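Q: Could you fold this chain for me?
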Amino acid sequence: MSDYTPILPQELITDILLRLPGKSIGQFRCVSRPWLSLLSDSHFIKSHSTLLSSHDPGKFILVSDSDHTLHTITLTPSTSTSSNTSSSRQDAVARKISFPQCPDKWETVVGSCHGLVLVRTDERSLYLINPTTLERVKIPSFPLALDPSASFSMHGFGYDDWTDDYKIVTLSYYDTDNEHEPDCADTFVDVYSVKTRTWKRFDPSPCDHAVPDLASGVFLNGGLHWLASDRSEGYPSVIAVFLLDGEDFEEVPPPSSLDRGKFVFNKLVVLEGCLGIVVDNYNDQVDVWVMKQYRVQESWTKFTINVHEDTDMLKPICKLRDEEIVSEKDEEKLVLHSLRDGTSREMVVAGLPDTFEHGVMTFSETLLSPNFYSLNAEMHNSEGQIEA
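A: Sure. Below is the predicted structure, expressed as structure tokens.
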């Protein structure tokens, strides 16, 4: 009998490894020196991050209101609206993550891209973290930043494929008597390059819109999106997108049949890789408009989520298999909705904080380091801790 042992082609091995979770990749680095070299290669790590980010992540991150700590949530594979809802069953597990030598309290999760997450502290500091590897980098403050006590600001985080760079965009404007009617001409636009570790301000500002609800930018297709107001209207009436490659603002057409006067009650989301608008009708239904073809106005389609009368606020987070939507309810619960039969139920999440006012965001597992470009910068990659 032959001692021949079949060997898979290297291309097939790489393709299989690219589809594994980030934690598994980290463990497989110990298999051999060739695997350590392959799984540490920058091209492999980027390809792995991009591939996983293109699928529904099944992982969420949020900030607890009670103690300002970060928590990640992992869904169980069998989560569905038809699952047994007995007390012994869990739909997901929440775990607190912490970083040594990080004294600030977390305030809000700003954005997520390719498994990296931008988080702001109660002192207005920004950190770029990897919730999987527990690495972190503190973003240097911008010397020209407006005084926080006399201004409003919002951030967005995304990836510029043209320059192979992750960027942070900050929109800020001075405080006025009415925060819902800011002066559009006074909107400052600042951009931070993770690759070069530098800030820059655009002068004159490329933005003739304002973002009155202080929402974080929603990243999709190389741009950060905000519901915004133009010079003639104080309430949000357009979708403004800041393109990271050209570093300029453009507009994305909203649904033609949507009452723009109701934009102030809306939220932007990304569902299955498509831009969406959540319309709260303040009744027993929430409408969700989804743009099937990016920047094609005719491609907007609508579906409706039935909500219970005791619900004050509902925001879809992601879409799962079998036409099911995970939503955040009243900043304290996660709810699962079925678009097939209109049923819904509260999810059973072990360890979920009591409240999370600043929302829930998805992320994907990755080995991509927030220090990826910062070879000559101070490294903050000490191991963190995950509490069971």
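A (continued): Residues 295 and 373 are 32 Å apart (CA to CA).
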